[in-house]
Amino acid sequence: MDAIAQFISRAILQGTPLLYGATGEIITEKSGNLNLGIPGIMYIGAISGVIGGFFYQNGADRVEPFLAVLIPLLCCMFGSIVTSLLYCFLTITLKANQNVTGLAITTFGVGFGNFFGGSLIKILKSDVPYLSLVKIAQAYKTPIFPFAEDMSSIGKMFFSYGFMVYFAVIIAVVSGFVLKKTKAGLHLRAVGENPATADAAGINVTLYKYLATTVGGMIAGLGGLFYIMDYSNGIWSNNGFGDRGWLAIAIVIFSIWKPSMSILSSYLFGALYILFNYINVPMTYIPLIQMLPYAVTIIVLIATSVRKKRENQPPASLGLSYFREER
Amino acid sequence: MNALELKNVTKRFGEVVANKNINLSVQSGEILAILGENGSGKTTLMNMIAGIYYPDEGEIFVNGKPVTISSPKDAFNLKIGMIHQHFKLVDIFTATENIVLGIQEKQKFNLKDAEKRVAEISKKYGFDIDPKKKIYEMSVSEKQTVEIVKVLYRGADILILDEPTAVLTPQETEKLFKVIKTMKEDGKSIIIITHKMHEVLSVSDRVAILRRGEYIDTVVTAETNEAELTEMMVGKKISLNINRSEPENSVDRLIIDNLNLTNTEGIKILDSISFTAKSGEILGIAGIAGSGQKELLECIAGLIKTTDGKICYIDPADDKEINLKEKTPVQIRELGVRLSFVPEDRLGMGLVGNMDIIDNMLLRSYKKGHSFFLDKKPPKQLADTIINDLEVVTPGPTTPVRRLSGGNVQKVLVGREIAASPTVLMAAYPVRGLDINSSYTIYNLLNQQKENGVAVIFVGEDLDVLLELCDRILVISSGSVSGIVDGRTATKEEVGLLMTKAKGVKENEEK
Fold first, then answer.
1. What is the predicted pLDDT for the residue at B106?
2. Between chains, do B73 and A202 touch, taking CB under 8 Å as contact?
3. Of B71, B84, B90, the CB nearest to A193
């Protein structure tokens, strides 16, 4: 029992960055923007937070937990918002191809992260190829429910995490509510489904696309920050974030564009991601196990495409630029 | 007082004048029909009232006050609502969600209340609509109802319907007219765009006629008749001096018999079409846009499958009948049928815009030869020939066709199709968007083909051209043949009347 609870809590920690990424991408895709730059934005969010944390930890005499959380958080949000705005400007204002732009931003973001990560390591003149922000990480990892210490392993499975784990769930639930129940959500979905109709109904298509993409990118960026500050105990190493950004995009498909679904899917993907540590398989087969999340996504894609239920399809104008003047 | 009035409204798109000095007015509790051929500027005019376009000159008055309508939002605020020909609805939303979309209300967003209001409006005007039904589950008629309720929900007093009956069955049309009349009794002003004569006569109070972007007149429906309206709509015949030779050795080449086609909505696109195309003759096809011309040609070319009727080609070599029905374009070619098709959508269906002239020539001959590599010599020669013979203005044969002007694109396409030395040549709107010189080049090419014994089928929109170019003119209306006339003796009014004649009406007259 303990082992299972422990496995689940590792899966939740592993799934949380994915959840941030997936929620962000769902909000973005609902506006009709297929932002394949999300993996890059998560990298940039992470390194921006790391830069902020690095200078605070090395500059301040005493690390205040509140500032230790706030400074990286704001830096992370700034970095991911600026990158998302770049994507918006290229695809919405200049109407560049979304796929090409997104892939370029991902390539750029990974390089950006590794460049500044490497630079910070150089500043430290460190012998090891990584950077450690232990004091900052401590502030992030502090469980927000102090009583969890005394609980059984089952209780710990629910209550032992830092605030960002719960924050991810709240964001996903709130996004689901906003999309489904509010006027803004209705308008946003209309923009992603049929921008010409939204435009004719007097909805500001450009504004909605910009807002959704920027807010979505910001949320995704938090996933990168969580990965470094909480999951990795404040340790940045180049390329450490790996392919989690792409997994987040896979989760969007797996959750059939529903934020509420993305919570469980993220934890499931997190579990599949670390499964090889908990079952007895030869080393050579580990990549096969790690492949599982992607295989499952393909199966879901096939299933939803075959069933053709209209509600489960991607937003109808996903990936397309909107030209108003076209007759 | 007039609910809506236009004074000297003019709209240009670049060089083209879409509307010139239009004067119109509509009162409360009145139905005004706007009648005009394709391209007469009806939709452009209505789009200006709905705020989609902005007029270059002239004034618009609503309830006697001058207004500026620069966006659909302005139109909403002035209580003007337009029901577009192509519905602006989100497929996966319910009727109510679509209806409330974009409404800026101060009160709390509540779909339940909105559903109630939708039900109330439906009851008041006699609509048959389920507020919770998803759009993708609806028929065309239901979708249109949603569009109308959407406009009424916003409190519109002036409703513009752009060809509302084009997509409806006769029963649905009747239902729509009933609703329109109820709205009229409620004091709404209704403007309805149409080119179906019997609808104009049965539903409207007054008719405004447009021709080639110009305002002709407004007449009271009760004081006019079909013949008078047609004459105002098509206007006097203009002489174009297109050469026309007498057909020689005309024999049957293509026989279409009782061809039917139904779309996924269950509406008849083609309704028992029968005709014969003869060699050495140009057969014109006239009709209001969207009457089934495109589908007819695509059926013959093998792009749309039909199960009903007969499409038969008579081989000039041995006079044998070859059945073309349910054959793909490749199969048709393999049967030795030399059928060329110049589609309406030149850069969509005819040519690949980003490829150069040589590569576009290859598109018709890529299956030739057995080599792994492409043989570019023949297409290069063909491209050079076309550029020289048809005077295509281009920097060279390796320029992407997308960068050529409309006329030159068409020359490349027609040139390629003619080079296949066809026995049947079908051309859909081959001079659309072309300047006068290019148009005459195309007419001459078609005439040459005719003199070479090709059976030419020419789908056109300009009646003057059809009457001077074609030997016979087949007129289709709502997917069925309303008449075949002699191109030399027919008058413009005669063709115009046939174009606007609906099948149901014809049958009534026969009874």
1. 65
2. yes
3. B90
- The series of mean pLDDT values per 10 residues for chain A, 327 residues long, is 88 96 97 95 96 91 90 97 97 94 96 93 86 91 86 85 94 95 93 91 91 97 96 91 91 92 94 87 86 86 81 89 68
Tell me if chain A has a CB within 8 Å of the CB of B93: yes
B-chain residues near A187 (CB < 8 A): 101-102
> Which of A183, A197, A200 is closest, CB to CB, to B109?
A183
Domain boundaries, chain A: 2-326
Q: Do B90 and A183 touch (CB under 8 A)?
A: no
Measured between alpha carbons, how far is B58 from B63 in angstroms, rounded to an integer? 17
B104 interfaces chain A, CB cutoff of 8 Å: yes
Measure in Å the smallest separation between the Cα of B103 and chain A Cα atoms. Answer: 8
Residues in chain B, pLDDT under 50? 504-511
- Fold topology of A2-326: ABC transporter involved in vitamin B12 uptake, BtuC (1.10.3470)
Name the amino acid, one letter, at B371. Answer: S
**How far B362 CA sits from the closest chain A CA (Å)?**
29
Q: Which residue, among A123, A125, A115, has the nearest Cα to A238 in the 3D structure?
A: A115
Cβ of residue B72 closer than 8 Å to a chain A Cβ: yes
Each residue of B433-459: b (16+ CB within 10 Å) or e?
A: ebeeebbbbbbebbbebbeebbbbbbb
pTM: 0.79
Alpha-carbon distances of A156 from A10, A18, A20, A149, A226, rounded to whole Å: 11, 21, 22, 7, 19
pLDDT of residue B507: 42
DSSP per-residue string spanning B378-400:
HHHHHHHHHHHHTT---S-TTSB
Give A59 to chain B, closest Cα distance, Å: 49
Q: Is B101 on the interface with A (CB under 8 A)?
A: yes
Distance separating alpha carbons of residues B205 and B208, to the nearest angstrom: 10
Structure tokens at A183: 């006027």
Residues of A in contact with B134 (CB under 8 A): 310
**Interface contact B71-A202, CB threshold 8 A:** yes
Say if strands B57-62 and B2-13 run parallel, antiparallel, or are unpaired: antiparallel
Residue that has been written with the tokens 């499958």 in this structure: B305
- C-alpha B36/C-alpha B296 separation (Å) is 24
Distance of CA B60 to the CA centre of its chain: 28
| Min Cα separation A106/chain B (Å) | 29
Structural domains present in chain B: 2-234 (3.40.50.300), 245-336+422-511 (3.40.50.300), 350-420 (no CATH)
- Map B106-149 to HEC letters: CCCCCHHHHHHHHHHHHHHHCCCCCCCCEHHHCCHHHHHHHHHH
Residue B82 CA neighbour count, 13 Å, CB half: 26
What is the tens place of the pLDDT at every residue in B314-348?
Answer: 988 888 888 888 888 888 888 888 889 999 888 88
Residue B495 C-alpha, separation from nearest chain A C-alpha, in angstroms: 29
**ipTM for this prediction:** 0.84
d(CA A138, CA A307): 47
Question: In this structure, what token pair is assigned to residue B68?
Answer: 């500026």
Asked if residues A323 and A32 have their Cβ atoms less than 8 Å apart, the reply is no
Which of A180, A181, A197, A308 is best to mutate for the B interface (most B CBs within 10 A)? A197
